[in-house]
Amino acid sequence: MGLKALDYETMNENVKKVQYAVRGELYLRASELQKEGKKIIFTNVGNPQALGQKPLTFPRQVVALCQAPFLLDDPNVGLIFPADAIARAKHYLSLTSGGLGAYSDSRGIPGVRKEVAEFIERRDGYPSDPELIFLTDGASKGVMQILNCIIRGQGDGVLVPVPQYPLYSATISLFGGSLVPYYLEETANWGLDVNNLRESVAQARFKGITVRAMVIINPGNPTGQCLSEANLREILNFCYQENLVLLGDEVYQQNIYQDERPFISSRKVLMDMGPPISKDVQLVSFHTVSKGYWGECGQRGGYFEMTNIPPKTVDEIYKIASISLSPNVPAQIFMGLMVNPLKPGDVSYDQFVRESKGILESLRRRARIMTDGFNSCKNVVCNFTEGKSLLSTGHSKAFVFCDFFSALLLGYHTGAMYSFPQLRLPPKAIEAAKQAGKVPDVFYCLKLLEATGISTVPGSGFGQKEGVFHLRTTILPAEEDMPEIMSSFKKFNDEFMAQYEDNWNRSRM
Amino acid sequence: MRRFVIGSARNLIESSRQKYQFERSILSSPYRFLSSSPAADSPSSSSSSSSTMAHPVSLNTINPKVIECEYAVRGEIVTLAQKLQEEIQTKPDAHPFEEILYCNIGNPQSLGQQPITFFREVLALCDHPAILDKSETQGLFSADSIERAWQILDQIPGRATGAYSHSQGIKGLRDTIAAGIEARDGFPADPNDIFLTDGASPAVHMMMQLLIRSEKDGILCPIPQYPLYSASIALHGGTLVPYYLDEATGWGLEVSELKKQLETSRSKGITVRALVVINPGNPTGQVLAEENQKAIVEFCKQEGLVLLADEVYQENVYVPEKKFHSFKKVSRSMGYGEKDIALVSFQSVSKGYYGECGKRGGYMEVTGFGADVREQIYKVASVNLCSNISGQILASLVMSPPKVGDESYESYSAERDGILSSLARRAKTLEDAFSKLEGVTCNKAEGAMYLFPRIDLPEKAIKAAEAAKKAPDAYYCQRLLAATGIVFVPGSGFGQVPGTWHFRCTILPQEEKIPAIVTRLTDFHKSFMDEFRG
């Protein structure tokens, strides 16, 4: 009959619309080059262990024992496993209904959800209900479940920061909703201006879109900023006024490299605000084992916590979770271990602290090397001064903005594991990109990849203001490789700029 | 019948929704009007309307597709079971039984089935590779598990078990799986056709997502079916096109029935896009004959349908006269290749003799699609980054277990055969017990993990069920649970020929528990029939 069962033309249009830059064109090209034998430095995904970060020992010991519970009966188990790991493994196995090989409750193991609730209570100072905490296969799955519940069709809008982590744009396309962008202010350290939000909502409403939810990523991805308490209050007030559910992506809450501005959860601020807001604004907060000094991406462990979601709706979300049966159990144990870490006096405590501190301090040092590297580049400038806008001072030089690193150096409010420098590309480079049929920053990043093997993500994958270009890199490559990476970046960048710059500077002057 | 269930669920939701709205309207809205001072300084144009609106996330404002989908395996009856279990824990004599006997879900290890030692050794070593080169490790782990763990770690870039992998899964593991498929079928398999997933369910969702554009797109599904399919189709807004399995011929799948249903739905303007076949069957336990499979392949080819082959029970075949054949093997043996038929085969680590449900490992093998479609599947997979690594490793292990001559081969094969033969005995015992009950007929358990007996309920029982606003088989299951602690899933959760009633029972409780189940069920059934017999 010549009928094709499923071809491109007859596929779900929403699927085709999905853009997912983190694993998009750049990543595919990098994989090809790698196959051809070229050494590739992947800085495109926040995937620390792929770049040599060692897992924390203690959680791995516990999970290994849970995988092979027969070891617990072996008299020699103590030869390679410390007593506290053995005790913890027994503890977690006792919380399961049949070990790691049994489906758990679709919301996750009740005992682990209780540990998560206790963690939240310690963190925020307000009790948390384990019944409103669902464990998931990584935070992404949780985000997808919640957005699936919220989005009914094209008329439903979700406010998403731009630049944003493309999980949100991809998921919203997949479920056929409308992404309503709000721009973060690069010139104000990627701050969130509520007036921008109002404008975005007004514009969306004008187009007939019902804005239903707002996403915040705190600390920011790819932008690395940490929201202040005052800012969070404004946001929650805004959600209250506009009747929006707030989705708080807080997966980088451990990645804070300074003490002046600690991470504050949306939930704590919401509770602090008191009624009516604390009783009314709906909030879903997400967390994961993939980030922080854990970096256990491959485990796919996460949770979300719901606040002010009516019980009947929680039941519906439970039903959707149940169609996938249960989140994977080993990752649930990792989550338990993350929220209920070792305490002083435990046999493995010192090693655990040494390892986690070592990872965070190394991340800090690597960020420093990267910043210095960017600064040494021709036409590359980092914005060192908080609140001072270099863009608005009329400089005509090409800048690479890099608030995250500058903020790190000055001890400003920063987090996450990314740099999102701005690229001011000369017109000739933009023209060349057009000729090649590429978005200018994609063009730049592809050239960077071909020349140096450094695999980054173009800013257009996250969204950015028109005519402004960025790239995102993680700060995760191994410390000893950093100087070399930065010098090859510099070499490429300077040559690239020189090639396309020509008389650009002079003519602009 | 399905209509009825969905309808009753809607009524329930409707009533609770009205109640909820009522509560909100008397409680929250005025409250909010009175105390909106924090918002007072904001532009009022946008905020004035919000106080009369429902919450953005509430029953009447969430995606209606979410409300529509049903998932009986974890539905009402399970919620009741959990409640009873809690009551027993706090007050052991609260009910006439000491424990809840879960026969509702294919979750073998929750009922005491032991994992295969070799698999777990390898997983433990991959989770904690720091001990691999310690000499003490050799005293605790088998030599071939250590060797296998090294092999697997070498396949993972950077030996990083805590890293996101390629979104299709680690290439080396896909190579192993492809080799396993090739050994099983005798036809080549391409590692690039394999997508590793967190269990088989997300793979099914992914395919539904690709196929379903609107309610005009239909998916042919067996009735009775595993409710993952109906739920996933509902969630993606498509139309389930049912085809009935023939209970009289041991749940046979007739191509004439497929044709009839296809024509009917086409005449209603539905574009049928795919055919779901579950082999061995869930909940029906039948194993398809090769000839039957050939006819199905031919049908899909002729009608231009994607064949979605749920083959997660491929290791669970209990009768010597039946053998599992993959649809890939059947279609290739007919001479049909990539260009002739679009075929997706699903496999899972949760079933078989391994029963590793909690690991969420699985894969789909995708053949017969263009490169552009494949790219889209990859893109959708990449949004979720990758499936969990432990599950990926396990999926490779179940497709390449120890071989003759390996140190662990003997213990591995003893464990495997022990589990499979025990399952076969349990299936037989339960089948015999069901067949002895008044008004009950039971299919033969050829494969999978379930029995799906039919029960002829007396008129009075059906009336009583109606009065209790329950489907009659749900009513029976609920009474059974309350009286005995045994959890079955009512047939209405899987779909059945209207006017017939069934329940699904897993064959998974440990063997020593089976006699108690049989006795309790038999006693309950007798008193139930005594109560309602005309």
UniProtKB/TrEMBL annotation, chain B:
Gene3D superfamilies linked to this entry: 1.10.287.1970, Aspartate Aminotransferase, domain 1, Type I PLP-dependent aspartate aminotransferase-like (Major domain)
Entry keywords, A to Z: Aminotransferase, Pyridoxal phosphate, Transferase
The UniProt record lists the keyword Transferase: yes
Pathway where it operates: Photosynthesis; C4 acid pathway; Amino-acid degradation; L-alanine degradation via transaminase pathway; pyruvate from L-alanine: step 1/1
UniProt entry tagged with the keyword Plastid: no
Required cofactor names: pyridoxal 5'-phosphate
GO molecular function, one term: L-alanine:2-oxoglutarate aminotransferase activity
GO biological process, one term: L-alanine catabolic process
Pfam families reported in the protein's UniProt record: Aminotran_1_2
EC number: 2.6.1.2
Limits of the Aminotransferase class I/classII large domain: 158-519
SUPFAM superfamilies: PLP-dependent transferases
Subunit-level organization: Homodimer.
Similarity field: Belongs to the class-I pyridoxal-phosphate-dependent aminotransferase family. Alanine aminotransferase subfamily.
Protein name: alanine transaminase
Record organism: Gossypium raimondii
Highest classification ranks of the organism: Eukaryota, Viridiplantae, Streptophyta, Embryophyta, Tracheophyta
